[in-house]
Amino acid sequence: MLSKRFLAAGAALALATHALAQTATSPAPSVLPPETPLVVDGKVTVTAADFEGNILRIPEDRRAGFRMSQDRVAGVIDGVFVTRSVAQKARDAGLDRDAAVQARLQQLQDAFLADEYMKMIEKNSKVADVDARAREMYIADKAKYMTDEEVRMQQVLIGVKCRTKDAALELAKKARDEAVGGADFLAVATKYSDAGEKAEKGGDLAWGPVKAFVPSVREAVEKMKKGEISEPVESPFGYHVFKLIDRKPPVQKPFEAVKQQIIDAERANLHRRKVEEVIQAVRSSTTVTTYTDNVAKLVAPGMDMNELSRLGREAQAAKGRPAPTDKPAASDAPEAPAAK
């Protein structure tokens, strides 16, 4: 087997010429004819076409940069060579003559071609007048493009790691009484909050989105007015006493800030619809014939343990009780192109 260093040296001049001709987003075609040999060992030959085929796995906008590294190019060629050499050993052993193996090879080829076809559809999915369409969607669904409501809070947090809930609640009430009685809230937070529970600046939580709080805290905060001190609020962390310093209501984000997000989402939806149309057209073909009797003969008697587990989980869920989980079995479904 040829070393990566040897392969890299042999390809250096071609790669250098190629790098000058390519751009970051539109790689130039190979400088070598497809049948050009790169590595030969008896029955095994790796050609320029093999290299071009292998790098199809790399996103198109990254291929140009990939080709600029001699080590990466040599690594691809070496990988193809090793895989093909081992595959040749499999052929010599007759594995490729097994009917199931032949069918599986065909399925792998079909899956790859189907994926390439879907990529072609995605590439050709054009949104007419994308700017105007994006603005229409922005105006039609303003609520979707709002900022989060934010609040600035201060808190006393009494944990329950080293005390009972009742003791923590009593301490939280005592802290609240002092704060409501006129004591500086941050001083109260420093005095009562557990050492491990103190926020930076002695209880000052600074600005943050309301939705980031746990449900019990979020519900309490939503009802508070500016300057108000809350009753003790229980959460998984203990008991909180909050002071609402200020509140920022949601505002609509500028169009330019969300324009690309809208365009990307619309393109993704268009692609998904086109993929669904292709799959639906295949499944609704009027010329297809399914031999259900033959399909039924492939089903073994009995029931698979994974199927029994699935039915058990469904029965438990129907009764409203949690069901034990088990390791999911590998899917036996044939490969199908996935909608993006």
CATH fold type of the domain at 147-248: Chitinase A, domain 3
- Describe the largest sheet: 4 strands, antiparallel
Number of helices: 13
Overall mean pLDDT: 83
Helix content: 40-55%
By secondary-structure content and strand pairing, the structural class works out as alpha+beta
Q: What is the C-alpha radius of gyration, as a whole number of Å?
A: 32 Å
Could you name the ranges where pLDDT drops below 50 across 5 or more consecutive residues?
1-29, 328-340
Let me know the number of strands.
6
In CATH terms, what is the architecture of the domain at 147-248?
Roll
- In N-to-C order, the SSE pattern is HEEHHHHHEHHHEHEEHHH
Strand order, biggest sheet? Answer: 4-3-6-5
CATH class of the domain at 147-248, anyone?
A: Alpha Beta
Brief description of this entry?
Helices cover 53% and strands 11% of the residues. The chain contains 13 helices and six strands. The relative contact order is 0.09.
Strand and helix map with partners:
Blueprint: H1 4-21, E1 37-41, E2 44-47, H2 48-54, H3 60-67, H4 70-92, H5 99-124, H6 130-140, E3 150-158, H7 165-180, H8 185-192, H9 200-203, E4 204-209, H10 215-223, E5 233-235, E6 238-248, H11 255-283, H12 292-297, H13 305-318
Antiparallel strand pairs: 1-2, 3-4, 3-6, 5-6
